[in-house]
Amino acid sequence: MWLRLGVAEMRKLLLVVAAALCSAACTTTVAGTPKAAPTPTVTGPSGQISQYFGNLNVAGSKGPGPQREFLRETQHPDFTGDLCDLGDLTLREEPAMSTLRRDAKWRPQGGSKPRGDVYVVAVSVSVLRNGAALGEQIGLERLVLLDGKVYGFAPCPTG
């Protein structure tokens, strides 16, 4: 049985057949069993700093009290008197870890250089009340790696 096709239909049919033949002839078989690539583990300062933000956000998801306690426990030991009360607010911070770098010359405003290795990272900070966003800001945050632990500087609201 012969089909009567116009020129346009014949061209389409020939393109489909050519594509099918090429894909069948152009495939390559690789011996072995496929394996998923291992998930890279982040170690060193980058991994520890990323974990700090994860822990900060988990504490914030539990409420102002647990996040306040987290900020108190992770306040740099040279600056424990510089804590601020965020009241009923919590923070959610998302760091852009690709911006993480050492910042050896940084000093807190009016303070001396903190002990340890200072790092700076760009962070998107959401301020929340009862889980509802009140505002968002993008800025730089400093953290310090001292004796194998990451310390921060608790944020203080500005009026």
In words, what does this structure look like?
The chain has 159 residues and is an alpha+beta fold. It has a domain at 44-151: Roll (Nuclear Transport Factor 2, Chain: A). Helix content is 30%, strand content 28%. The protein is built from 3 helices and 4 strands; from the N terminus they run H-H-H-E-E-E-E. Strands 1-2-3-4 form a 4-stranded antiparallel β-sheet, covered by helices on one side. Strand 2 and strand 3 (132-146) form a beta hairpin. The model is unreliable at 17-27 (pLDDT under 50).
In helices, the fraction of residues equals: 25-40%
Q: Could you say what the CATH topology of the domain at 44-151 is called?
A: Nuclear Transport Factor 2, Chain: A
Low-confidence stretches: 17-27
Number of strands: 4
Name of the CATH architecture of the domain at 44-151 = Roll
Read across the widest sheet, the strand sequence of neighbours is 1-2-3-4
CATH class of the domain at 44-151: Alpha Beta
Q: What's the Cα radius of gyration? A: 28 Å
Give the number of helices.
Answer: 3
Residue-averaged pLDDT: 81
Secondary-structure element series: HHHEEEE
Derived from helix and strand composition plus strand pairing, the structural class reads alpha+beta
Termini gap:
86 Å
Biggest sheet statistics: 4 strands, antiparallel
Q: Tell me the overall shape.
A: globular
Beta-strand proportion:
25-35%
